[in-house]
Automatic annotation (TrEMBL):
Top-level enzyme category: isomerase
GO MF entry, a single one: muconolactone delta-isomerase activity
UniProt xrefs under Gene3D superfamilies: Dimeric alpha+beta barrel
Entries under Pfam families matching the protein: MIase
Protein name stated in the entry: Muconolactone Delta-isomerase
Entry keywords, A to Z: Aromatic hydrocarbons catabolism, Isomerase
Subunit structure and binding partners: Homodecamer.
UniProt entry tagged with the keyword Methyltransferase: no
Annotated signal peptide: none
Family: Belongs to the muconolactone Delta-isomerase family.
Entry EC no(s): 5.3.3.4
Every Muconolactone isomerase domain range: 1-89
């Protein structure tokens, strides 16, 4: 199943710099592993903001919840999820 996910990062302004660096490094490693596994299909920065738009390809809602709640930045993000399905006019057959 494909999901469009928007994440807006809201780190506390008073979080110490070394803690910020650590959480961002862990977030990067976690997301890159999921990208290698093909579960995190696209990751785009939203220009002008500390937010991303992502496309996840996971088995079901439960797996999406597991993946997203494992994000190191999860406690510091507003997250919006939109489930996607095939558009009848799409010429793609493989949902890529
Ligand atoms: O910087 C972000 O948008 C948060 C984030 C998600 C995956 C990642 O590496 O950073």
């Amino acid at each position: 199943m494909l999901f469009h996910v928007e994440m807006v990062v809201k780190l506390p302004p008073d979080m110490p710099a070394d803690q910020v660096a650590d959480i961002k490094a862990r977030e990067k490693a976690y997301s890159q592993e999921l990208q290698r596994q093909g579960k995190w299909r696209h990751l785009w920065r939203v220009a002008g903001s500390y937010a991303n738009v992502s496309l996840f390809d996971v088995n079901d809602n439960d797996e999406l919840q597991e993946v997203i709640s494992g994000l190191p930045l999860f406690p510091y993000m507003d997250i919006q999820v939109k489930p996607l399905c095939r558009h009848p006019s799409s010429i793609r057959e493989d949902n890529t």
